[in-house]
Structure formats: structure tokens, C-alpha cells
Amino acid sequence: KQWYQRRVAITAGVFNFIFWALGGTLLVLGIYLKIEYDALDDISNDNFGNWMYGLIIVGAVIFVISFMGCCGTLLQSNNLLMMYFMLLLVLVLAQVGCCVW
Fold it and tell me: Helix-strand-coil percent breakdown of the chain, rounded to 5?
């Protein structure tokens, strides 16, 4: 392997690990807030509950996709990296679609 290919692989692995950790943090934060919110019955703002579910869903999606990128980079698996790329492409196209809509 060339030196730049190793650097790209290391950089991709580091960024995927960072996003994996952030996705896990969002997931844990959403679950924690959901548990605490259910314990407090006197809060009547239902929008807060929707935000908690949003945190859980977004955190889980980021966690899974980043984990796939980490494993694909570390194992140098073309199949995992292609799935990772396709999922990122779908997410980017969905974001563009939401912005246009």
C-alpha cells in the first residue's frame, strides 16, 4: 500500500470512531431523557417527548452507520465500505430532498 492510502484509511477510521461515539452519546442521552421524562408526570409539554424520540432515532442511525464505517475501514472490507457509502448517499439525498421540499 502507498503511504497516502494508509493515511486515508486511518483518517476515515478516526472520523468514523468519533461519529460512532457521538451517535452513542445521542442514543444514551435520548434514552436517559425518556426515562426521566416518564418519571416526571407533571410536565405537560408533549413536544419534549417527540424530541426525545428524535434523539433516540438519530443517535441509533448515526451509531449503526458509523459502526459499519469503522468495521469496514479496520477490516478493509469492500462490501462494508460500499454499504457505508450507499447509506451515506441515501442520507445526503434525503437531506437535499428535505431542503428542496
Answer: 90, 0, 10
